[in-house]
Structures are given as C-alpha cells and as structure tokens.
C-alpha cells in the first residue's frame, strides 16, 4: 500500500507544476512573441510592452493614440498583433472604422503608421519576414507580403473561402502555416505566397492556433484534437483533448508539444512521438491565447487577462 501511495505521489509531482514567475501587465494580453530574453506583448489598452524576464522588469512601452468607438467615444485600441526584428517594432491595432486595421512601425523610437483605416485592410495578424517586408493575414483568409518602404503589397493570395484563424512562421521565416475555420492547414512560401502543402485529415473544424518548428506543425482544434503534422514524412497524428483547444506550442527540438486542452485552462505537455504526458501546468486563470517554448524546459503563457506566466519543467 505504501508503494502505491509513493507511486501516486511521484505522478502528482511529475505532472502538476506551478509557475515560477507571474508578470502583471497593465491590460489584457492579446499577442506575445519571445525575442531572446525579452517578451514583446500587445495589450487591449493600446500598448506594446517589452519585458526582460531575466532582469524581471519592463524595458520599453509604446503607446498608440486613442481611436473613436462606434459611439464616438475615445478609447485605447486593441493591439492584437506584435513583433520585433533587430530594433524595429511592429504593432497591428484596430482603427475603430469599419473593421479595418492600423499598422504601425517603431524604429529608433520614431513611430510611423504604414497602414491606415482608409486603406480598407481587415488585417488580423502581422509578422516581420525581414526588416523590409511584413507578412499580413486577413480575416478573409488572404495572405499578403507587404513592402515597408513602398507601402505596397508584393502579392496577395486567397488561401480558401473559410475565415482566417492563425498563422505561424518557421525558424528562418521562409515558410508559414495558416489555419482557418475549415480545419485545413496551408503551408506557404512567404516569398511567393504559393501553397506547398495542404494538411488535412485530422481537424474537421476551426483550428484556433498553430505552431511551426523544424518541419513539425501542431494545431489547436475546436474539435478537441491537438493535431501534429510531420512535413518530412507526410505523417499526421493527434492528441485527444477534453475541451476546445485554444493554444499550442512546440519545443525547439520538437520533442515536446504543448496544448491548452481542458476547461481549467491548464497546459498539457506531451512527448511528441510517444504522446505520453510529461507535465501539466496549472495556474492560468482564463482562456489561453499564447504558449511559447524558450527551450526544452522554459515556457511562457498568456491568456485573456492581465497575467503572463513563466514555467520551468524541471521545477515543481
């Protein structure tokens, strides 16, 4: 009986882990990326905040001007997509006009708006490809490559008739995977917009989030399936969840995958090949929207509230 109790205690220690750091952000986190030792955070109160998790302090804040809501009141815009390359920052925000977006760049503390509401672009997500080009994703599930200097689209491609959900870039930003309401994932060349892989057969409904690392792609499915695609051997698999899966991530080695797959907003970590559960991260209090692996042991997560959490899989 003592041996059984000890075994159950070991399982509890292995699986249930708590955050090692809680970061309070002044506003709800809408998007987050990791650049070296800094988190770049977009919030719903018109700000981009940069947080150094080693120094445990905010190192930069960028404020966007207020916009008018449908009642004509001045409010802070939601910043729903952020990025950084070298010393350049990117902020995609709502405009308050017709569902169209504003796109901003900040370079050497100089803020420049490069897309306006008058351009009538319903952009949902934006990421740097390099310091001259930005990949844009539209609500209509179109993808465009945008030239910063000319402020013109190099191409625009319609991926499908389904509503856009998310996209993720690979390590060198030469490829991107796009998800939509249909459950089909499109892998494109970012240089041309050409679809090079169409991934289907696992998710049959909306894929909220995707991750892309070393030819491995994961999808967070509304149908409670955490999909796993291997572009090298064209194989696919999935891990069954107990609730809608809102977020996913892949470790740099691709040995581990993460999914937010229960009603308690816990993060489940699995061995990608065996699908065995490695850990369960408890502490997020609202619906997760972002999970990021720094390395094999360190993760960050953000949800629809003011708190970002840092995790260490080696610590209980």
What's the helix and strand layout?
Layout: H1 2-15, E1 16-17, E2 21-24, E3 29-35, E4 38-43, E5 47-52, E6 57-63, E7 67-68, E8 74-75, E9 79-85, E10 88-94, E11 101-107, E12 110-115, E13 123-128, E14 133-138, E15 142-147, E16 152-158, E17 164-169, E18 175-180, E19 185-189, E20 195-199, E21 207-213, E22 216-221, E23 225-230, E24 235-240, E25 248-250, E26 256-260, E27 267-271, E28 277-281, E29 288-293, E30 298-303, E31 307-312
Parallel strand pairs: 1-28
Antiparallel strand pairs: 2-31, 3-4, 4-5, 5-6, 7-8, 9-10, 10-11, 11-12, 13-14, 14-15, 15-16, 17-18, 18-19, 19-20, 21-22, 22-23, 23-24, 25-26, 26-27, 27-28, 29-30, 30-31
Text of the CATH class of the largest domain: Mainly Beta
The CATH topology of the largest domain is given as Methylamine Dehydrogenase, Chain H
Query: What is the name of the CATH superfamily of the largest domain?
Result: YVTN repeat-like/Quinoprotein amine dehydrogenase
Strand tally is: 31
What's the CATH architecture of the largest domain? 7 Propeller
Which strand order spans the largest sheet, edge to edge or round the barrel?
Answer: 1-28-27-26-25
Share of residues in helices = under 10%
Tally of helical segments = 1
Total domains: 2
What is the 3D shape? globular
Strand content: over 45%
* Uncertain residue ranges: 1-13
In whole angstroms, how far apart are the ends?
25 Å
Mean pLDDT: 94
Rounded to an integer in angstroms, the radius of gyration calculated over CA atoms is 20 Å
By oligomeric state, this entry counts as single chain
Please identify the structural class as seen in this structure. mainly beta
- What composes the largest sheet? 5 strands, mixed
